[in-house]
C-alpha cells in the first residue's frame, strides 16, 4: 500500500483543511502564493535546497536554491512596484521557458498583481486579443519577441510598460519599453508581500471558447490549497523527488504543477527549455536523475515512435512515478510505458477552469489503463444525461462530465464575462464540455468533447479564432475550421475555405494562408490542411455547419441535416 493511503481511506472524512493545516493556513489568514512558494520553504530550513535546475536550449545549466528564488522574486516584485504596478494589475509573462518566466511569475504574485502567462509562440493577433481583453498594464518579454508587441502597441492603450528581461543595452528602447536585468540587479532581501486573502485574484489564463474569443480564466490565491494536495497525493511529490513537468507555463499545467505546487511543496524541479527530441528528453532524465515526470500523451506517443531500443541507451532507473494530462491517454501508451520505463503513465484529467487535477489515477488506487480514474477526494463528479441535465440513474452510459463546483482552485469567473461563466452551469452542475462514461466502480472513461473545440497535441484551439483570422487574409471569403484525425497529435486543425472572386486555389496560396495563421495566431492553430471549396454547408439562417465537415473528416454519420440550406 502506498504511503498516501488507499483511495477509500482518503475519501472517508476528507476535508481541504488537511492541506490548510499542512500549510499552516487558517480561514481568514493572508495567503500569498509567492510567499508560500519561496519564503515559507526557506523558513523551514530549506534555503539552500535546490528549487530549480534550468537547462536552456543551448545546453547551459543554471541552478537556483530556494533562497535564490526567494531573492529573485523579491527583486522582480520590487522592480514592478517601482514602475507603479500594484495589486490586481494584470502583468503578462510573454517569454520562452527562461528562468525569468518562473521567477517573474512569483514576483508578480508577491505584489498582489495578476499573473497573465501567454505562450511565447503566440503571434501578434493571439497576443492582442488577450492583452486587450485583460487590459494588461505590463508585459515581461524577451528581445526576440518584442517585435510582436511593438506591432500591436497602438491598439493597447492600457499597456504602460514593456519590460525586456534580456536587453543588451545596444538596440535603442522604444516607446513604453524598459530594460530589466535580474543578474545585474541588487538582490532584494526583504519585500513586503501583498497581504492576499483567499479570494484575492492570482492568475489569469486564457482558454479557447467555442463561440466567442478566448476567455480569461480567473484564479485566486486560495487555489494553492488544492494544487498543493493534488500534487502531493496524485503526483506523489515527496521531499527527495527530482521533478520534471514538461508543460510550458503559458498553459495551466505549467503554472499549477510547474510552479505553484512543486515550489510550495519544497521539491526540486527541472526545466528544459528546448524543443522535443527523444534523445534529449531521455538524456535530461538520466542527467538529472528525475524521479517524478508529468507529461502529455502526444509527447508519450512521440517517445513510443522512437522505439524501445533507444530507451536502453540511457539509465532511467531514477524514474519512480509518471503521470500524464491534456488529452486522452490511450491504454497502449500506458502499457508501453510500463514495459520500457517499468512504470505506467497514470492519466490525470482537469482543465484550465478547474485549476487542479479533478479526476485521476494515483498511487493507492487500482489503475485501469485507458480510464481517467476517479474524482479526487473532496471533488464530486457525475455523468449527466444530456437531455435532462441530470445525473444518469445508473453507470454505463456516455454523458456530460459534470462537477460540483466547490473546491479551492476552481476558477472564480471568466474575466469580465460573468455571463459566459454562468452558462457553464446546469442544475448547479459545472459542465466541463467533455463527454465520458462511468463504469460500475466509479472510474471515468473519456469519450470526447461535447463542442467544436479542437484539442491538438493537448492544446485547445478555438475554430472561431482561426476562422476570424482567416477572414483577414485577402483571398479568403468564408471558412469553416474543424479537426481532422492525426496519429500523433490525435487531432489537427483543418480549414475549409471559399475564395474571393479573382483568387484561384493553388499550392502557393495554400502555404501562404497556413503561414499567415501561424504568424498571426500560433503554430498550433495553423491549419495542417486547407481544402478549397465552392461553398460551405449552411443552415437556412446562414450559419456554417461545422458538424457536417467534422463528420466527413472523422468518417462519422452526418446526422440530422434537415435545416441545411443547400440540400
Ligand atoms: C481539456 C482542458 C489541465 C491541463 C491541460 C489542458 C482535455 C485534459 C484530459 C485527459 C482526455 C483531457 C479535455 C479538457 N483533457 N485532460 N486526461 N483525457 N482529455 O487544459 O487547455 O483547459 O484543456 O483538455 O477536453 O476539457 P485545457
Briefly summarize what is shown.
The protein is α/β, with parallel strands linked by helices and 567 residues long. The radius of gyration is 23 Å and the shape is globular.
Task: Show the helix and strand layout.
Elements: H1 7-11, H2 17-22, H3 33-36, H4 39-46, E1 50-55, E2 61-65, H5 66-82, E3 90-94, H6 99-110, E4 114-117, H7 124-134, E5 138-141, H8 146-152, E6 161-164, E7 177-179, E8 201-207, E9 215-220, H9 224-233, E10 242-245, H10 252-264, E11 268-272, H11 278-288, E12 292-295, H12 297-306, H13 309-312, E13 321-324, H14 331-341, E14 345-349, E15 359-360, E16 374-375, E17 381-385, E18 390-391, E19 398-403, E20 413-414, H15 418-422, E21 425-426, E22 429-438, E23 444-449, E24 454-456, E25 459-461, H16 463-471, E26 476-486, E27 490-499, H17 507-520, E28 529-532, H18 546-554
Parallel strand pairs: 1-11, 3-4, 3-5, 5-6, 6-7, 10-11, 10-12, 12-13, 13-14, 27-28
Antiparallel strand pairs: 1-2, 8-9, 9-20, 14-15, 15-16, 17-18, 17-19, 19-22, 21-22, 22-23, 24-25, 26-27
Helix pairs in contact: 5-6, 7-8, 9-10
5'-O-[(S)-butoxy(hydroxy)phosphoryl]adenosine (WT7) binds at residues 207, 252-253, 325-329, 347-352, 372, 432-434, 446, 449, 455, 460.
Amino acid at each position: 500500500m502506498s504511503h498516501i493511503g488507499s483511495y477509500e481511506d482518503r475519501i472517508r472524512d476528507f476535508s481541504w483543511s488537511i492541506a490548510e493545516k499542512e500549510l499552516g493556513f487558517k480561514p481568514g489568514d493572508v495567503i500569498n502564493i509567492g510567499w508560500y512558494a519561496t519564503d515559507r520553504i526557506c523558513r523551514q530550513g530549506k534555503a539552500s535546497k535546490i528549487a530549480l535546475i534550468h537547462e536552456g536550449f543551448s545546453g547551459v545549466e543554471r541552478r537556483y536554491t530556494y533562497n535564490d528564488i526567494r531573492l529573485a522574486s523579491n527583486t522582480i516584485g520590487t522592480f514592478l512596484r517601482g514602475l507603479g504596478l500594484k495589486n490586481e494589475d494584470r502583468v503578462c509573462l510573454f517569454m520562452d521557458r527562461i528562468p525569468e518566466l518562473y521567477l517573474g511569475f512569483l514576483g508578480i504574485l508577491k505584489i498582489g498583481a495578476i499573473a497573465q502567462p501567454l505562450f511565447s509562440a503566440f503571434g501578434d493577433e493571439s497576443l492582442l486579443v488577450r492583452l486587450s481583453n485583460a487590459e494588461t498594464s505590463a508585459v515581461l518579454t524577451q528581445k526576440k519577441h518584442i517585435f510582436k508587441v511593438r506591432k500591436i502597441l497602438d491598439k493597447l492603450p492600457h499597456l504602460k510598460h514593456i519590460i525586456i528581461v534580456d536587453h543588451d543595452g545596444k538596440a535603442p528602447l522604444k516607446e513604453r519599453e524598459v530594460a530589466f536585468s535580474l543578474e545585474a540587479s541588487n538582490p532584494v532581501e526583504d519585500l513586503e508581500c501583498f497581504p492576499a486573502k483567499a479570494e484575492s485574484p492570482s492568475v489569469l489564463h486564457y482558454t479557447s471558447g467555442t463561440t466567442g474569443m478566448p476567455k480569461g480564466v480567473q484564479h485566486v490565491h486560495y487555489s494553492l490549497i488544492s494544487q498543493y494536495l493534488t500534487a502531493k497525493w496524485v503526483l506523489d511529490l515527496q521531499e527527495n523527488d527530482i521533478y520534471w513537468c514538461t508543460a510550458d507555463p503559458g498553459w495551466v499545467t505549467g503554472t499549477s504543477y510547474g510552479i505553484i505546487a512543486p515550489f510550495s511543496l519544497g521539491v526540486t524541479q527541472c526545466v528544459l527549455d528546448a524543443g522535443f527530441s527523444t534523445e534529449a528528453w531521455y538524456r535530461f532524465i538520466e542527467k538529472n536523475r528525475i524521479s517524478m515526470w508529468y507529461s502529455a500523451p502526444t509527447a508519450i506517443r512521440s517517445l513510443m515512435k522512437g522505439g524501445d531500443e533507444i530507451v536502453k541507451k540511457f539509465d532511467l532507473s531514477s524514474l519512480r512515478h509518471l503521470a500524464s494530462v491534456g488529452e486522452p491517454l490511450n491504454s497502449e501508451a500506458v502499457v508501453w510505458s510500463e514495459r520500457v520505463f517499468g512504470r505506467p503513465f497514470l492519466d490525470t484529467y482537469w482543465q484550465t477552469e478547474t485549476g487542479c487535477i479533478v479526476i485521476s489515477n494515483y498511487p493507492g488506487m487500482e489503475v485501469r489503463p485507458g480510464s481517467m480514474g476517479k474524482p479526487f477526494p473532496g471533488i464530486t463528479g457525475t455523468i449527466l444525461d444530456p437531455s435532462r441535465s441530470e445525473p444518469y440513474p445508473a453507470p454505463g452510459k456516455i454523458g456530460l462530465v459534470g462537477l460540483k463546483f466547490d473546491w479551492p482552485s476552481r476558477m472564480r469567473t471568466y474575466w469580465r464575462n460573468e455571463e459566459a461563466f454562468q452558462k457553464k452551469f446546469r442544475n448547479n452542475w459545472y459542465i466541463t464540455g467533455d463527454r465520458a462514461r462511468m463504469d460500475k466502480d466509479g472510474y471515468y472513461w473519456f469519450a470526447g468533447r461535447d463542442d467544436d473545440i479542437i484539442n491538438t497535441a493537448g492544446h485547445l484551439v478555438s475554430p472561431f479564432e482561426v476562422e476570424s483570422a482567416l477572414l483577414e487574409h485577402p483571398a479568403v471569403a468564408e471558412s469553416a475550421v474543424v479537426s481532422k484525425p492525426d496519429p500523433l497529435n490525435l487531432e489537427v486543425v483543418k480549414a475549409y475555405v471559399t475564395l474571393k472572386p479573382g483568387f484561384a486555389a493553388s499550392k502557393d496560396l495554400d502555404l501562404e494562408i497556413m503561414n499567415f495563421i501561424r504568424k498571426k495566431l500560433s503554430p498550433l492553430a495553423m491549419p495542417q490542411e486547407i481544402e478549397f471549396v465552392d461553398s460551405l454547408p449552411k443552415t437556412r439562417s446562414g450559419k456554417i455547419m461545422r458538424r457536417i465537415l467534422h463528420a466527413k473528416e472523422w468518417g462519422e454519420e452526418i446526422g440530422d441535416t434537415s435545416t441545411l440550406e443547400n440540400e
